[in-house]
Amino acid sequence: MFTTFMFATGIENSIPTINNGRTRIDQMEKCGHYKHWQTDFDLLDELDIQVLRYGPPLHTSFLGPERYDWSFSDMTFGEIKRRNIIPIVDLCHFGVPDWIGNFQNPDFPELFAAYAEAFARRFPWVQLYTPINEMFICAQFSAAYGWWNEQLRSDQAFVTALKHIVKANVLAMERILKVRPDALFIQSESSEYFHAENPAAIKPAEIMNARRFLSLDLNYGRRVDSEMYEFLMDNGMSREEYHFFLSRSSLRHHCIMGNDYYVTNEHRVRADGLTTSAGDVFGYDEITRQYYDRYRLPVMHTETNLMEGPNGDEAVNWLWKQWANILRVRNTGVPIVGFTWYSLTDQVDWDTALREENNRVTPVGLYDLDRNIRPVGRCYKQLIQDWCNVLPAQSVCLAVPVVPPHEIDEAPVRRHQDRLRKMRRKEAKEDDEPAATSQEVRL
Questions:
Q1: Tens digit of each residue's pLDDT (9 = 90 or more) over 63-99
Q2: What residues form DSSP beta bridges with 185?
Q3: Which InterPro entries does the record associate with it (predicted)?
Q4: With bands split at pLDDT 50, 70 and 90, how would you rate the model's confidence at 436?
Q5: What CATH class is the domain 6-442?
Q6: CA angle 215, 220, 224 (to 5 degrees)
Q7: Who contacts 232 (Cβ-Cβ below 8 Å, separation ≥6)?
């Protein structure tokens, strides 16, 4: 029932729209997963990988309020269960169905929470979830940079998207816990850092380094910094909305903080606030410790990759570098519970962050799109074999109560779920009780 470290990969299910909603970029379709899904699951066996970041295509599964099409999910998740793969279910990845519109829609949080609960009831053996992937990046690219979905460029649009996305994530966690009281939520969130290029750039860099925490601050019910509070209030968040997030802080006990790190996650900031890529200056180790010091939650490295270049060893060297950072983080006392090379296969149009449809292959997978293993795939398999039995005795180790699909009906699991269900009911009862009056307090 308990695992100490999760070696994972993922199958990309992002679905943003571009061209003012006229074009949807469906990464599962682009990468051939709808056609080759059985082969893709075979590849996991070939690599000895038991944990998969994976989710249903939201735009074809969620047809309307209380209307769902689980046909593809029934096939794929049925096979995942049969193979005893542990899925980390990614329910919303960068886009929503056409009938919802985009992340400016205030109805999105409640609609998505209902969808999350419906999925959990359909597949009650699923335990691990990323309800909404990279909440900060989703809001930034959709409503600040104008690249996806609503394609807006303003602080107010960004705050609106952010509050709707994070509220949807929080409500989804609550609704899933009603079905699966031992559910765990792995927030796959981009870990960023902004470096001032010169003294005049210090202030804009400080603002960006505060802003990068907004999604997780709200999600974990942590009070935001004073400057960010003013930013949120000035751009459309009400005090009632802000206090909604503070009131859900107990959900963090069900969370693992997923940190995504790519070579593009660190930025050089100019005095005028414009940014360029800085490369890996600090690296995953330093930036993850910044996030851990802020939230004090178990950590998982939930995404990384690098394109295979002309030498053929670029991705292999990046894998080694990320793994060295994992070991460094663990050895300095941070409870890190997993590592993910993302994704299983190459992706398409990730060189333009999906904001253009060029149908250009981005060679970042463990396998290419013909399902031939890449050098980084062979190295990842060897890394798993070398380290899977060493880590528990080698450094700081945290046992995560993960239940493989085939163990869902075992008595210890059921007892554990019953205990958690009773605890949830008690917490809910206490939350519903009216506050004591000042006279009652004195008595």
A1: 999 999 999 999 999 999 999 999 999 999 999 999 9
A2: 129, 255
A3: GH (IPR017853), Glyco_hydro_1 (IPR001360), Glycosyl_Hydrolase_39 (IPR051923)
A4: very low
A5: alpha beta
A6: 60
A7: 159, 163, 214, 224, 242
Work out the angle at residue 298's Cα, subtended by the Cα atoms of residues 248 and 58, and round it to the nearest 5 degrees.
60
Cis check for the bond before 343: say yes or no (omega within 30 of 0). Answer: yes
Integer distance in angstroms from the first to the last C-alpha of the chain? Answer: 47
Asked if residue 271 lies in contact with residue 203, where contact means CB atoms within 8 angstroms, the answer is: no
Beta-sheet pairing, 336-341 with 6-10? parallel
Separation between Cα atoms, residue 151 and residue 160, nearest integer Å: 13
**Neighbour tally for 88: CB within 10 Å:** 28
Give the Cα separation of 102 and 149 in Å (integer): 6
What's the Cα-to-Cα distance from 327 to each of 13, 173, 205, 332, 335, rounded to whole Å? 29, 30, 29, 9, 11
Task: Tell whether the model's pLDDT for residue 104 goes beyond 90.
Answer: yes
CA-CA distance, 93 to 239, in Å (whole number)?
28
Averaged pLDDT of the chain: 93
Strand ranges for 71-138 from DSSP E: 86-92, 128-132
Give me the phi and psi of 218, to 5 degrees please. -65, -45
Compute and round to an integer the Cα radius of gyration of the chain: 21
| Per-residue tokens: 438 | 């000042």
Q: Which of residues 443 and 190 earns the better pLDDT score?
A: 190
Distance (Å, rounded) from C-alpha 10 to C-alpha 342?
5
**CA angle, 245 as apex, 171 and 128 as ends, to 5°?**
40
Domain ranges of the chain: 6-442
Beta bridge partners of 195: 268
Query: Is 337 exposed, middle or buried (CB count within 10 Å of its CB: 0-12, 13-18, 19+)?
Result: buried
What share of residues in the chain are helix, strand, coil (percent, to 5)?
45, 15, 35
Q: What is the pLDDT of residues 220-256, one digit of tens each?
A: 999 999 999 999 999 999 999 999 999 999 999 999 9
d(CA 338, CA 300): 5
Backbone phi, psi, residue 402, to 5°: -90, 130
DSSP state, residue 140:
I
The phi and psi torsions of 59 (rounded to 5 degrees) equal -70, -25
Which residue reads 């009650």 in tokens?
124
DSSP-assigned letters across all residues of 333-386: T--EEEEEES-SB-EESGGGTTSS----EE--SSB-TT-PBPHHHHHHHHHHHH
32 dihedral zone (left: phi>0; alpha: psi -120 to 50; beta): left
- What are the structure tokens assigned to 93, written together? 């990845």
| Integer Cα distance of 160 and 341 in angstroms | 32
Query: Tokens 């528990």 appear where?
Result: 392
Contact 115, 91 (CB under 8 A): yes
